[in-house]
Amino acid sequence: MMMWDCRSWEGEVLETGCYTLTCKFVAHFQNFSCHITGVFAPNNYIERRIVWDEISAVRGLMEGPWAVCGDFNVTRFISEKKNCRRRTRGMVEFSDFIEDMNLIDLRLEDSSFTWFKGDNQDMASRIDKFLIFEEWDDSFSNIKQIPLQRLTSDHIPVALQGGTWNRNKNYVKFENWWLGTAGFKDKVKEWWSSFNFQEWSRSETRNLGYQRKKLLSQMAELDEVLGDRILTEEETIKKTALFMEYEELIKNEEISWRQKEGDKNTKFFHKVANAHKRFNNIDQLMIHGELTEEPSRIEEEIIDYYQ
After folding, report:
1. Taxonomically, which superkingdom (predicted)?
2. Higher local confidence (pLDDT), 97 or 62
């Protein structure tokens, strides 16, 4: 299975094999396109030869940057597998395939393994990775693969990083999920007089990205502890609580993204705004038994009423 964010990428499935799926991606906001082949290899070196054949077969169809990624179910070197003492035939064949295809096996930053098993993680290996072709260097000067935070899976997600994404500054927008934030309504009353709304929206304590990084960092610390010993009961409870908090944060991020997706549809957004404007507009008012349409009188009466 391969998924992508259609807000940023246009994807097209090109080839489907027994163990591979090859897609073409075109960026919406950058002059960039690439091919990705996703792999889920069998845990048998003879059957894995089908994977190597499938990847080799689509090589001639590719132009520009191409990456092969996924769960290869095999390592290249002894150092990539915990407690491994010798190279197996499958490991040698995998390494030969990479070299024959002129693929680049990028070093994994800040981690030695991507798969773990057992309460004490006594079994671990680096079976998940990105393999890239040299064309990536034409578009990225510092491309690397980095591990992400592992949650419930026994695999660590791996991301291919080509550099920082610079975003233009934008004005503050109301986020629907703020309504469920503790103390928000009281803050609105305070901001109504202080005009401090934009400062709050940028505050780290209310920033979803900041909260997500903080939670992932705390869970990563517990994972490091788990690498050395079994977690205490208190640490296990803390990890569960962090995961539940992370799930709630992800829900808020989804609400935020759905709202932003609607905002991008300018025609729809203005139709909704105009409908609200028409609904809330007071074009006539009964004042002391007399119906008036004069804006100044209507405004004066409303002000007097609320004073």
Report:
1. Eukaryota
2. 97
Q: How far apart are CA 125 and CA 78, in angstroms?
A: 9
Q: Is the model's pTM score more than 0.85?
A: no
Lowest-pLDDT range of 23-37, 42-56, 72-86, 156-170:
156-170
Give dist(CA 95, CA 201) in Å, integer. 50
Domains of the chain: 9-161 (3.60.10.10), 176-264 (no CATH)
What pLDDT sits at residue 209?
Answer: 73
